[in-house]
Design a protein that fits this description.
Blueprint (H helix, E strand, L loop, with lengths): L3 H11 L15 H9 L3 H6 L3 E3 L2 E2 L10 E5 L29 H6 L3 H17 L4 E3 L22 H17 L3 E7 L12 E3 L2 H8 L1 H8 L5 E4 L3 E2 L2 E2 L4 H11 L5 E2 L9 H6 L14 H8 L5 H17 L16 H14 L1 E5 L12 E5 L24 H8 L5 E5 L7 H6 L18 H12 L3 E7 L20 H11 L3 E6 L7 H6 L2 E4 L7 H9 L21 H4 L8 E2 L15 H4 L2 E2 L1 E3 L8 H6 L17 E10 L3 E10 L5 E11 L10 E10 L4 E9 L5 E3 L4 E3 L3 E10 L2 E10 L1
Parallel strand pairs: 3-4, 4-5, 5-7, 6-8, 6-19, 7-10, 12-13, 12-14, 14-15, 15-16
Antiparallel strand pairs: 1-2, 2-3, 8-9, 11-16, 17-18, 20-21, 21-24, 22-23, 22-27, 25-26, 27-28
Helix pairs in contact: 2-12, 5-6, 5-13, 6-8, 13-19, 14-19, 16-17
Bound molecules: beta-D-glucopyranose.
């Protein structure tokens, strides 16, 4: 294979091509690319528009164009599968760093850490010979039950956008393209292959598109994965509005689109309305496309444009020679350090009654209770996962970090919930598996846990969900703690009131019962291969907790907007002709074969997450942006000014405690006397600040005025509403410490 791209870059440099936007770096080789396309046959071109294997699409050997190798993300480079499926190939060199999953990354509220995370992913992808990471996954967490909340970042578009930008830049700076997914409005797993999302344009633009727009325009994301679902009637992979008008037309996207696996739906639709690569199969963008071109139904220029977009990415991303890739395990010490750093800043302290945390030096015996203390989460469930070289579980971390002389005991207390996987893999009868998700605790297991709790100075109850409960392909039915965990914590508290509960989950849980019996509650996430060490460092007070919730914990599920509006779960209409679909080669899984009609109305509009609760004045359990520390922070001396371009805010932040700690200062805006309807408040800037004990620092935040615009449905454009804006600065969306007002003229 000839590395022609180097030559082309040099040609371009010599011709002094101008790169004005991050997307422009993709077009620097267009002249050369056009020459190549002109030399290709139709068959050769179409060969590039569909999968070659389950995780690659073809280049062109004759012309020295390497295949494109995809790596499933988003929180670690997925283990190698067999060429035509997801079954593990059984390699020994394909382990990679397990980074904290999406919602944990988001809890750091740090674009800098997202950059490091993305660069770790990018570097390890290169070592594995991969060109494009299928990630980051940046859909808005609309539903507390969403099976993929753990992969996604936030309920807030601004926070999700900043992190998506960090991740994208980090990965692409290391020479690996990202494929941001799932574009767009893929906010539920229930019927994800068929659901038709009905959403107004303002909401799409202001909430659901934002992270994608930022990753494309600001960070130059090179690939985009259209989602499985439909939007306003058309599948995302053949949605003219989404892919051609908005993505390419308005945002200036110059890279390639790759359908979600099995998410291509027709030849004409995909060909004419914006899809470049069908993954997987060649049913639509293969021989049928060649026929359509020959029949004059699809102009050959349309095929050329697709090949051009693929080649732009191919030329921007250097292929890894086969004899260089996979020579050693991909997981790098530096990435593991990043995984630790992210994990340690992601843990959220939700409650700390009687300052029970950090664990006092007087505690000499700790009972760690709960199966999640020993469960590994790098892989499992359906979809994203990574073969981690090791994984420090909560129990292991606690053992590693416990001061000398502290005894640690452990009891499992509850069974595993294996869900449909138990049935698929014949594990249903295993004595370790609960038959039902809400099964009561096994009496013997409970008795053992109570005994250990009684005998300890402190109980650490590790509860939460697992990878079978929160998983791709399905949503939870409730956010209740599963397998009798509420009964267990109650029983533990009856023999020992000193209970610290750690929730291991990707999305929010209903903690009303847990709260009654726990003196402290910690959101521990699926926190990567160093997660246990990071958690234990916080529990023992080696570092102060500093994570902040990227989504709201509602008091109960039914309070959350899509439920309150009756928008979820939806009514499903089963249509006739179930058989038509069964012979489609590109479709995997029964769920997608169902021929059904289901509409998901988004009538809550932009009132997603805290926007809903704040606007409707409804109480929540833990608010968006909330998270305690072991110290207090003082906010003072706010100064604010507004120019035509930006609002500038400065203030002093003091760590009034006696240990070093980070605070995430959050700036929300609220419109005064607006004529347009707005949520009560919206996040528009934030900063993670590290402060030594007693230190004060001046902090500056800036909000570009363009960020304050709304999408005007009438003019179909972004519009600025002038007038007074209240600035709300604080430690959480419900903990505003300082206010100021500026005028937007
Ligand atoms: C998921 C994608 C993933 C792809 C390949 C799909 O089922 O929705 O996120 O990248 O599979 O594994």
């Amino acid at each position: 294979m000839k590395p022609i791209y180097f030559l082309s870059i040099m040609v371009c440099l010599a011709a002094s091509c101008t790169v004005q936007t991050p997307q422009d770096r993709l077009t620097v080789n267009d002249e050369k690319i056009n020459e190549l396309i002109a030399s290709m046959s139709l068959d050769e071109k179409v060969q590039m528009l569909h999968s070659k294997t389950n995780m690659s699409s073809a280049g062109n050997e004759r012309l020295g164009i390497a295949d494109m190798n995809y790596a499933d993300g988003p929180f670690g480079i997925r283990e190698e599968g067999v060429p035509n499926g997801f079954t593990p190939a059984g390699w020994t060199t394909d382990s990679a760093t397990f980074f904290p999953t999406g919602s944990a990354l988001a809890a750091t509220w740090s674009e800098e850490l997202a950059y490091k995370y993305g660069s770790g992913m990018g570097k390890e992808a290169r070592l594995r010979g991969k060109d494009i990471i299928l990630g980051p996954a940046i859909n808005i967490q609309r539903l507390p039950v969403c099976g993929r909340s753990y992969e996604y970042l936030s309920e807030d578009p601004f926070l999700a956008a900043r992190l998506a930008v960090g991740y994208t830049k980090g990965s692409q700076d290391m020479g690996t393209a990202v494929c941001i997914k799932h574009f767009a409005l893929n906010n539920q797993e229930t019927n994800r292959g068929t659901v038709n999302v009905i959403c107004d344009e303002r909401t799409m633009r202001e909430i659901y598109f934002k992270p994608f727009e930022a990753a494309v325009k600001e960070a130059g994301a090179m690939a985009v994965m259209p989602a499985y679902n439909k939007i306003n009637g058309d599948y995302c992979s053949e949605n003219e509005y989404l892919l051609n008008e908005v993505l390419r037309g308005e945002w200036g996207f110059k890279g390639m689109t790759v359908s979600d696996w099995g998410g291509t739906h027709s030849t004409m639709g995909a060909a004419l309305h914006g899809l470049d690569v069908q993954m997987t199969g060649d049913h639509y963008l293969g021989p049928a496309l060649i026929d359509s071109v020959k029949a004059g139904k699809v102009p050959e220029e349309v095929v050329d444009a697709k090949v051009r977009e693929i080649l732009r990415v191919r030329f921007a991303i250097e292929p890894v020679p086969a004899d260089v890739a996979n020579q050693a395990t991909a997981s790098q010490p530096e990435s593991r350090q990043t995984a630790y750093e992210v994990a340690s800043k992601a843990v959220v302290l939700l409650k700390n009654q009687n300052k029970i945390l950090p664990i006092s030096k007087d505690v000499k015996k700790i009972a760690v209770i709960g199966r999640n203390a020993v469960a590994t989460v790098a892989s499992g469930g359906m979809g994203a996962g990574v073969k981690a070289p090791y994984e420090i579980t909560p129990l292991q971390g606690i053992k590693n970090k416990a001061p000398e002389g502290v005894e640690i005991t452990y009891a499992q207390a509850y069974k595993n919930y294996a869900g449909m996987f138990a049935r698929w893999f014949g594990l249903a009868d295993s004595p370790d598996n609960a038959a039902e998700i809400n099964e009561s605790p096994d009496p013997a297991m409970l008795a053992e846990a109570v005994e250990k709790a009684k005998d300890a100075d402190l109980v650490i109850f590790v509860c939460g969900t697992n990878k079978n409960i929160e998983t791709e392909g399905s949503d939870r039915q409730t956010i209740d703690l599963p397998v009798g965990q509420n009964e267990i914590v109650k029983a533990l508290s009856e023999v020992n009131p000193k209970i610290v509960s750690i929730i291991i989950s990707g999305g929010p849980c209903d903690v009303q019962e847990l709260d009654k019996y726990s003196q402290a509650i910690v959101q521990g996430w699926w926190n990567g291969l160093e997660g246990g060490n990071a958690l234990a460092d916080i529990l023992f007070g080696n570092i102060a907790p500093s994570g902040k919730l990227p989504f709201t914990f509602p008091i109960k599920l039914e309070d959350s907007p899509a439920y309150a509006m009756g928008n979820f779960p939806q009514k499903v209409e089963v249509l006739g002709d179930m058989f038509g679909n069964q012979y489609r080669k590109d479709i995997q899984g029964q769920r997608m074969m169902r021929n059904i009609k289901v509409d998901a109305y988004y009538t809550e509009g932009p009132l997603v997450g805290y926007r809903w609760f704040d606007t409707k004045n409804l109480p929540v359990k833990y608010a968006f942006g909330y998270g305690l520390s072991y110290v207090d922070f003082k906010y003072s001396d706010i100064k604010a000014s507004a120019s035509k371009k930006a609002i500038k805010v400065s203030f002093n932040l003091t760590n009034t405690g006696d240990m070093d700690a980070d605070e995430v200062a959050q700036l929300y805006v609220s419109r005064i006397d607006a004529t347009v309807s707005w949520p009560a408040k919206e996040l528009k800037a934030f900063k993670r600040v590290s402060l030594a004990a007693g230190q004060t620092q001046k902090v500056e935040l800036s909000i570009p005025v363009s960020e304050l615009q709304y999408w005007d449905e009438q003019t179909k454009d972004w519009t600025l509403e002038k007038g007074q804006i209240k600035l709300l600065l604080g430690s959480a969306s419900d903990d505003i410490r300082l206010e100021s007002t500026v005028e937007i003229k």
